[in-house]
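Bug #77: duplicate submission created two jobs. Keeping one. Sequence:
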Amino acid sequence: MFTNKLELAIAPELRNYDIFPKVVPVGKTSVITIKPLGRHAAFSRGGYRLSICPLDEGAPSQYPDRPNDFEYDAAPDEDGCIRFTFEFFSEQQYFVRLISGKFKLQLSVYAVEEDLAGRYPFRGDLHLHSFRSDGRQAPEVVAADYRKTGYDFLAITDHHRYYPSLDAIEAYEDVPIELCLVPGEEVHLPSDDKQDQPRQHLNSVHIVNFGGDYSVNALVHDEDAGSSSDEDPRRAVIPNPPPVRSWEQYWREVDQYMFTIDIPASLQGSERWTYASCHWIFDQIKRGGGLGIFCHPYWIANVFHIPPAFVGAMMESHPFGAYEVLGGENNFEQNGFQSAGYYLDWAKGRRYPIVGSTDSHNSVGSRNSHLCCTYVFSPENGRAALIDSILNFYSVAVDTIDEMPRFVGEWRFVRYACFLEKNWFPLHDELCFEEGRAMKAYANGEPGARETLELLSGRMKAQREKYFGW
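Kept job's structure:
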């Protein structure tokens, strides 16, 4: 039997009743509307008892001196909706309950402080692959598949290659879509492990350039990666990117760069050069306006891909823009160790931005296709605003290894994300699915797809403006 997963994701009360706005500013009087979705859910003309119950203030019977229960008489207006006015007094979730005889309904509203008011939640993936490296699908198909599953932004970050992300962008540049596609790549610069000399210029650390104006891979001529023929003509989205150097020049640059940074004494031999190379790469990404992401440091490839001691040195200096605290593995160790390390660092006073990504190599039909993501609280769904919001700590990483999502991040943002996961994203995902399906049809040249995308354009923006009250 066919099961509509989108429908199952929507709580029963939200299938029958709409409440808007769902998110409001703290300390400002808001008008909240409860609307029946169909005649079967219509309110009776009789009276209702409306209660507003803050989540954080305890049960009224146990904590009678706290502001934890507000009750009013309510009745539907001429249009059949029930409306009430309330000043939500602190950042938290508020349960809105309607009772009349045997009828009981509970919905929710969330109030946010001033710094979050004006910021919308956008779901994204900052690390995934296409068939241009070791993935399965074309970049434009990957983008459409991810839009179908509720992603608002992403970058194709193929190994060694920047241009596949441009393929995805260019595939839809002539049609209106509300998915934000940004340039990206996974950076792997040449080591000397294939040269007939002592191995000292080694760097196997995986680093993502999300949103950079130019390719960092293409800054170094690497014939083994094919970048000289494939990357150079499309290695930037700006005119006059930095010049290309040979791998020997790159090695010398990092040799010199080592004298400009403090290298922990715990790192010895070639590890010192690896550490400096990572710093150099992150510096180049930052110069290009991108977000440098330190990827899956606790990935187990037979053994830990990166020794934990090296990871610790990186976390102490954190030259990266963001730490990939969740990646696309469905075992506990990788994400569990990364999350535990993040909170341990927090206890030590180390604070750095975090993201979650799938690192997927197959956009459909794989257990890892849509396993992790990032919620970014941003004023708009654009490259600069998203990067700026992440750098300023307005992000939460989301893990869906199990059916119940797990959130990693700051306490207040995790609480907010839990509310959004139940009350906002299921409705949001319905619109994403429709646009993603039309995108895939357009990418495959199906007739009528352009017209469908034009018809759908603007619906996501209208939905945000309806449910976020600022």
